[in-house]
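Annex B.
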Amino acid sequence: MQFKQETGLVLEGKIALVTGGTKGIGKAIAQRLRISGATVVVTARRKPEETDEGVHFIAADLSDVVAVDPLVTSVKEQFGGLDILINNLGANTAPAGGFSALSDKDWDNVLQVNLLAAVRLDRAFLPGMIEAGGGVIIHVSSTSGMFPLWDTTMAYSAAKAALNAYSKSLATEVAPKGVRVVTVSPGLNKTGAMSSFLEGLATSAGISTEEMTQNLLQRVGGVPLGRMADPAETAEVVNFLVSPAASYLTGTNVAVDGGNFPVV
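NAD(P)-dependent dehydrogenase (Short-subunit alcohol dehydrogenase family): predicted C-alpha cells.
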C-alpha cells in the first residue's frame, strides 16, 4: 500500500530507534519515520539481506538482558542519544493450548520479549530525554492485551496487558519532564509473522489457512472494515503520534484495529 507522503520533514533532526525494525510493522514504521526526516536506527537479532537506504542497523537480541547495554552504548556513541524510541519488538512465541501447555520458560520468554525489553530500553534512554527536555516513547502493544484468547494468546495477552499498564503509569511520571509516552495497539496486520501464526494454527486444526483466517476474524468479533491492516497504515498512526502534531497526546492507548475491538 502506498500513501501520498507529506513533503514537510516534520522529524528532521530527530534520532529514532525502532526495535524489531526489520520486518512487518517495525519495518513500515522505520520507513515512515525516515520519510518524515528522522535519522532512523533499527535493531533486530539478525541483519536482513537488504536494508533501506538511510536506515542504520544495530544487531541485538533484546530478549537477552545482556544485549541491552551494548545497544545503548552504540546508539549513544554514534548518534548522541534518542529523541524517539519505538518499542515495537513483540511476538507470540508461546505454544497454543491454554494454561497447561505453558511452562515457566514459555512465560519468561513472552515476558522478556513483550514487556521487559521495553522496560530496559526506557530505563536506558529516558534520562537523556529528560535532560534534553523532551522526547517520545511509543509502546507497540496489541488489541490482544484487552481481548485475550485462552487457547492461542494467553501468555502474549497477559504480557501486553502488563505493557499497557506500565506504559500508562510511565506516561504519568514523565509527562511533567517533557517526555510523552503513548501506546499503540494494532489489531490484525498482514505481516509475515501473522501469516506464520495462522499457518501454524491451521496445520494444528487440520484446515486451510484461509479457513483459519476467517475463524480468527470471527473469533475476535469481526473487523468492520473487512480486512487486515497493511503495516503501512499502522506506521502512519505512529508517525503522527511522534510528530509535533500530537504534542498534547500522552498516556493514551490508540487502537488501530479497523473497528474490531467491540467496546465503547
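Residues 190-228 form one domain. Strands lie at 15-19, 39-44, 55-59, 84-87, 135-140, 179-186, 253-256. Further annotation is deferred to the next reporting cycle.
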